[in-house]
Amino acid sequence: MGRGYDPAKHRRRSIRLKGWDYRTPGAYFVTICTYQQQCLFADARFREIAELTWRLIPEQPHAVHAQLDEWVVMPNHLHGIVILTSVIGEEGDPVPERGATPRSLPTIIGNYKSLVTRRINNVRRTPGRKVWQRGYYERIVRNERELEAIRRYIRANPDRWAEDRENLDSLVSKMRRSGS
Q1: How far is CA 40 from CA 47, 82, 130, 135, 154, in A?
Q2: Taking the model in full, what pTM does it have?
Q3: Alpha-carbon dihedral of residues 108, 113, 118, 120, nearest 10 degrees?
Q4: Is 40 buried (19+), middle (13-18) or exposed (0-12) by CB count in 10 A?
Q5: Hey, which of 46, 99, 111, 136 would disulfide with 32, CB 3.0 to 4.6 Å?
Q6: Mean pLDDT, residues 140-166
Q7: Tell me: the pLDDT tens digits for 23-38?
């Protein structure tokens, strides 16, 4: 018998804040990790793809309401602050219970990961190869003081790579536990 999907075993818990509409205007701190924490972005070609694609997020049709704040691409992850400036959409747009919500943070990040994956795999001629860890970590930024602290953390991240690696291992461990 083949190994199929068993909802009792394969239930994915979301790390998202239950009931929160991720189209809500505000600042979001995002961390995206490479697959198996590979130092993929130590390769300048791949780092350039990740950086350029990140910079172009606000030009994507689904992300015209997004602004980028502080961000950095590290050898095996990206930290960034995405600010959603308004809820864009038709009055009464339904918010699906499952799947991608149009113009939401998960849609923006999912599209970013997909574009980077395709571009890197085109360069290395490895279609279908994983680039990113499943899911990502996000935190809703609650106030200006927290926003400034996150900005300082992001700016200091390259100088604290060895220390940050330990923090990243902890973060990835949390992501695995949550199943995203």
Answers
A1: 8, 23, 11, 17, 19
A2: 0.77
A3: 130
A4: buried
A5: 136
A6: 88
A7: 899 999 999 999 999 9
Distance CA 113, CA 93 (A): 25
Phi, psi for residue 79 in degrees, rounded to 5? -115, 140
Residue with tokens 């205007």: 25
pLDDT at position 166 = 55
Q: Residue 89 pLDDT > 70, yes or no? A: no
Longest dimension (CA), the chain: 55
How many angstroms separate the CA atoms of 166 and 134, rounded?
Answer: 19
Residue 1 reports pLDDT greater than 70? no
Question: How far is it, in rounded angstroms, from Cα 73 to Cα 66?
Answer: 19
Dist. CA 139–CA 150, nearest whole Å: 10
From the list 180, 76, 70, the residue with the least C-alpha distance to 134 is: 180
SS (H, E, C) 20-60: CCCCCCEEEEEEEEEHHHCCHHHCHHHHHHHHHHHHCHHHC
For the stretch 92-131, what's the b/e string if a residue is b when 16 or more beta carbons lie within 10 angstroms of its beta carbon?
Answer: eeeeeeeeebebbbbbbbbbbbebbbebbeeeeeeeeeeb
Residue 95's pLDDT band, with cuts at 50, 70 and 90, is very low
128: left (phi over 0), alpha (psi -120 to 50) or beta: left
